[in-house]
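Record type: monomer structure entry
Structure origin: computed from sequence
Chain ID: A
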Amino acid sequence: MKRSYFLGIGIIAVILAMAAMIDVALASYYPNHGTLYYDGNSYADSSLLWDTLGPWQHNDPGYEHDLAAKKYYFKGCTSWTNLPAGYDDCPTAGVSENGDMWSFTFGTFHAKKIQAGAWYFGFWSLERGTASSTHFYLNGQENYHGFCPWDSIWCMKASRTLHLLQGDFHSGREYRGSWNK
């Protein structure tokens, strides 16, 4: 009787430990689901949903949603988001990037305020350049106050990045994409 009792307790403990590991495995610093729409000219938007957030690499992490494209296709933008403590990071496009790809971004200074299961939204109003097409990456990025301790786009420093989507934009052609990670 005692042996089967302890065996049952052991099996339950293993099941609980596996469930906890699965929950941590599904947690992420990037949105697990979302969409990207581009109108083929000067407007793009994205919806974002996290199943479970974290674990974070920093005590007060931020999050950035980077639309990276060739600097000759887009040369500037403004952005908006309903992420908590959200910000427009477009003024930093081209400042620290090397090469032809610039990141056009919106984000949040305080990612721990994001609620799992809640849909968030952001959009970019883009200034077009002279190129007729570009390869793009939509990246999810954990960042942190790495250059100064207050909330400013110039204070945020990247810590890890994941490609959510990639593809090609063409002038005059709509793009619609989605991800599930």
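Annotation 1: The chain has one helix and ten strands.
Annotation 2: The longest helix spans residues 2-26.
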